[in-house]
Amino acid sequence: MKKYLRVINIIVLFFLFRVMMSCCMLSDCSCGDDIIPYSFNRTKIVNIDNSGIYGSETSSNELKRAAVAFSLKLSDTNFTYFDYYAATSRPNFGFSGAYALTKDCDPVFESTARINTITIITEQNLNASISAGQNVTEQFLVRLNSNPQSGLYETLENAITQIRYKGYPFVVINFYLKIPVENNSAQFSFNISLSDGTEVTATTNLITITD
Amino acid sequence: MEKRILLSFLLSLLSVFVLSQNTKKTVSFFIGNQGKYCGQTTINSNPDFLNYIDADGFNGDLIYIGFQGKATIKEKYKVSAIVGMYSDLAPVNYIISAAYYPKEKIGYGASFIGYPEYISDYFQHFNIYVPGLFPDLNTNYRQQRVYNYGFAVGPEYSIKSPKVDLLLRIHAGLRRESVFSDGLYQKRVDDNYIVRYNFETIPSFSPYLFPEVELNFKLFSKNSKEFGVRLHVAGEFTKRRMDYTKTTMEWTSEQKQVEQITSAKRNYSKYDFDFGIYYSW
Q1: Which one of A63, B45, B163, B203 counts the least CB within 10 Å of its CB?
Q2: Of A52, A69, A153, the CB nearest to B252
Q3: Are B192 and A67 an interchain contact pair (Cβ–Cβ within 8 Å)?
Q4: How far apart are CA B32 and CA B65, in angstroms?
Q5: pLDDT exceeding 90 applies to what percent of chain B?
């Protein structure tokens, strides 16, 4: 009986030790400088309803003629729930599903590639002079966040140089069409050329243009 | 920072006078009322920011309390500093003067005035309804403080009697205000179009007249020490305008259109009226 109790005590102490390790009591609990790399292997385009003062993402495929706007998100399929992942990625002897820290340590991600260029092709006729298949990149302006009081728009060329690749495991760029769509529908393809030589694409839904 | 340096210098100067022989020192405490009148101009396509001066104060005329320190040396040199504070009790309202009296009643002096004023809700101009436009994306109440200051010189007249001391001062000089700047965003309804307007004033000096009257009524006196009540009125008369540059940026900040907007001059006047007690020795 005493032997069993001794074995149980050792096992309990072992797992108690692992719990304490999870709580960072016995090791250095600094946030550390580890940066988690991520890649742009997923794209998502959401429509923006910019008819009012503040633009907002919308699931509707109807946009106003002069307020066509989209939000392009580039992210990594491995980090859909990146907070959870970061918490469990901390390598120590403790339980991966348990952790407690004296301060919040937000994980820091950094993309392995940079955006070189973005090309936008219209899949539908925009007006009498811009037909389907044409490059309409110059007709779009961008914003790196959605707050209208954060400033005016930027050209895509300027905005690309200001993208922050370190922080969260995604990049969001909002695109705003400068010219009204004269057709009754619109659709655009975004071709993103990355610094590692890869290209990713994203295509908007077929948009119904309303007045 | 400049106000603190000026005030420190003046306090030091007053201290020197205090320690000097043949110096009459006076300290006063008072409560007063400040009012302003600023003529309005016609609104055209661009705002005139002087139309939005808080002439009546936040709740009517501005009430202030303050202190005065005066020193008279050998009846020939007179220096005075008045510091007023509004409801926030910040010493922001100044009248500082120094004079030389070659004769008993007539002297020549210089004065410096400084005081703040609010410009409030100055983009009302854009809130006139324009179909198809959000005229101002910032719906918060706007208010800024500008500081006015002036320097003047001129003659003074001072008479003393057993019961009343009177000082009359009429100075003329140049005044201006500090820079005021702000901007707003506008956006079209159902449209991605957005425009930013930046405004920055171009202050310039303008001549002003500064009359001042001070009456000291002696209530008690003994061995060259006096106690009494003090009445003080000061005015400022000038013609002001607030020119500015207007920078227009449509869609992006890369293409800017800069215009110089000149506003019309209008009559501006300010008065300070305060009443208090004084003690001199």
Answers
A1: B45
A2: A153
A3: yes
A4: 6
A5: 58
Residue B16 CB partners (closer than 8 Å, separation 6+): none
Q: How many CB pairs under 8 A join A and B?
A: 52
Q: Tokens at residue B99, please?
A: 């004079």
Give the H/E segment covering residue B165: strand B164-177
Backbone angles phi, psi at A4, to 5 degrees: -60, -45
**Nearest residue in B to A211, CA atom:** B190
> Which H or E element spans position A110?
strand A108-111
Distance from CA of B261 to the nearest CA of A (A): 23
The Cα A146–Cα B213 span in angstroms is 59
Tokens of A64: 């106003």
Q: What is the mean pLDDT of chain A?
A: 84
Chain B interface, Cβ < 8 Å to A: 134, 137-138, 185, 187-194, 196, 249, 251-254
Per-residue model confidence as pLDDT tens digits over B199-248:
999 999 999 999 999 999 999 988 889 999 999 999 999 999 999 999 99
Residue A114 CA to residue A170 CA, distance in Å, equals 12
Average pLDDT, rounded, for chain B: 87
From chain A, pick out residues whose CB is under 8 angstroms from the CB of B188.
66
| Number of neighbouring beta carbons within 10 Å of residue B110 | 15
Residues on chain A touching B182 (C-beta within 8 angstroms):
none
| Contact check, Cβ <8 Å, B191/A68 | no
CA distance A137 to A98: 47
Q: Which residue in B190, B197, B257 has the most chain A C-beta atoms within 10 A of its own C-beta, making it the best mutation to test that interface?
A: B190
On whether the CB atoms of residues A178 and B192 are closer than 8 A, the answer is yes
* Closest alpha carbon to B241 in B153, B175, B196: B175
Strands A62-64 and A207-210: parallel
- CA–CA distances in Å: residue B35 to residues B32, B58, B133, B176, B215: 10, 11, 38, 18, 20
Cα torsion for A129, A132, A133, A134, to the nearest 10°?
A: 20
Assigned token pair, A85:
């992942």
Q: Taking Cα atoms as reference points, which of B181, B177, B196, B174 lies closest to residue B249?
A: B196
ipTM value > 0.85? no
3-state secondary structure of B16: helix
**What values do phi and psi take at A7, rounded to 5?**
-65, -45
* Cα angle A26-A29-A33, degrees, rounded to a multiple of 5: 140
Alpha-carbon gap, residue A208 to B149, rounded angstroms = 61
- What is the number of alpha carbons within 13 Å of residue B216 lying toward its C-beta? 24
Chain A residue numbers with beta carbons less than 8 Å from the beta carbon of B183 are none
Cβ distance B185 to A149 less than 8 Å, yes or no, reads: yes
Residue type, B135: P
Residue A104 binned pLDDT confidence (cut-offs 50, 70, 90): low
